[in-house]
Amino acid sequence: MKLCRFNADGVKAFAMYRARLALEPTLAPPLGLLTDPAVTETLPGNVEVVVRSFANRLEAGLFFNELLDKAGTNLPERDQGLWTWLTLFYFDEVCPADGFGRRDPKDEARLIPILDNHQRFYRHLLVGPFLIVRAHRDSPQRAIAMLCNPLWKPGEIAEQLASRKELVTNRAVAEAATQLYYDPAKTSFKRGAGSDVRGAARRLATLLNQLDLTWYLYGLSATELLQLLPKEFDRFRQRAA
Prior knowledge:
Order of helices and strands: EHEHHHHHHHHEEHHH
Number of strands: 4
Radius of gyration: 19 Å
Structural class: mainly alpha
Strand content: under 5%
Distance between the termini: 43 Å
């Protein structure tokens, strides 16, 4: 299928489906909208998109960067119609059905990009990994703590750090979070990383907002940032790479 974007009517139609899905969890996705000329526009370049799965958010972020580079799309992160169309196209990936055919759309911002709200912008399940990978394109693994989860399940670390662009795009912050909370041997999180224990991701996000008032975080290395963290982070810092 050719890569398209929704016009305003297409975005509205998808938003109506998402709202109904919250009440009727077995409601089938309106896939006919993807090719409806009344609500879609084909992007230049005749770029093909195919149905596929993604092992995690990192794989998805890499894929969408490559796809939209090929399409030559200008400022794709500002294109609500494009991301809404892609969300419907990959709906089984972002909102999978359970064994009974039920889907849980959760928060609207996960499926429809809220472009005028930076605190919710990165919550979109496709835009978030796309932008994180693009910000760390020289070494996406640096941000693996925000990208190792399934596409439909961002996880506590991504949720906490992605509320501020200054944090999620910061190399030192991404690398420090990965060293603190990611276990490469398990290709998953260390125990307690996404919980309410002292030194976990929620506390890190709060502390980084405080440090940002007195330190230029973009000028720090991950090692320097880790050294600034108080003793409550020792349970994770001592196991950091």
